[in-house]
């Protein structure tokens, strides 16, 4: 199903429950490795800002948090996706839950994403290897791309990042050679045309207003994305085939 703009299905206390679990289980250093989120208030402000698509899975049976996915930042029809899975059933079923979140993400065709990416500090091997297990492909490594904050001193160091990408099956046939280090396209040299006579002086005309099309499209896309989805998803573990939608009907995670 498609997620209507502005939808927010979280209860007021959900953000505190999620943040408390993130801190208690030591996930903050991985999910917010740049040190940008250090309080429940800041987490709620970020997750519900409208600049981020937020998906949080809670157990339908017990109500405990199982998983979290944050989608941001955006670049055209691509976006970065960040996962966190909580101890217990969330971590045990992380692959099935992660695939369910991805399926939900690409069901929403109105939001027009072609792919989601990950840029993970190389030192967090478990994180980027998990992405590969989900079906992401490794595109390469970017030197110094990931800021990592020291929890004790607050100092930032920049470490290599592993760049990964996930796209629906129909979009996976990408010529990676031409994107990363492939042969350069041949450029044909064309002789400049010969001009027989000087061109006449142009007539004075009123200048058209300059429109920054790039900025215009960026503003339009941001307006479309704003508040698109902040979904509290009820997850039923062992409930048969995956299906349904986010919100009150939730998702079933098969055994």
SSE blueprint and pairings:
Layout: E1 7-8, H1 14-24, H2 28-31, H3 40-47, E2 53-59, E3 65-75, E4 78-85, H4 89-92, H5 94-107, E5 115-121, H6 125-134, E6 137-149, E7 156-166, H7 176-179, H8 213-225, E8 229-237, E9 251-253
Parallel strand pairs: 1-8, 2-8, 4-5, 8-9
Antiparallel strand pairs: 2-3, 3-4, 5-7, 6-7
Mind describing the biggest β-sheet? 9 strands, mixed
Compressed to H and E, one letter per element, the order equals EHHHEEEHHEHEEHHEE
Strand content: 25-35%
Q: Note the overall shape.
A: globular
Contiguous low-pLDDT stretches (5 residues minimum) are: 1-5, 170-200, 205-209, 223-228, 240-249
**Amount of helix:** 25-40%
Using DSSP, what is the number of strands? 9
Distance between the termini: 23 Å
Query: Which structural class matches the secondary elements?
Result: alpha/beta
Round the mean pLDDT to the nearest integer and report it.
Answer: 76
Taking all Cα atoms into account, the compactness measure Rg is: 23 Å
Describe this structure in words.
With 255 residues, this protein is α/β, with parallel strands linked by helices. The chain is built from eight helices and nine strands. A hairpin with a 2-residue loop joins strand 3 and strand 4. The longest helix has 14 residues, at 94-107. It starts with 6 loop residues before the first strand and ends with a strand. Mean pLDDT is 76; it is low at 1-5, 170-200, 205-209, 223-228 and 240-249.
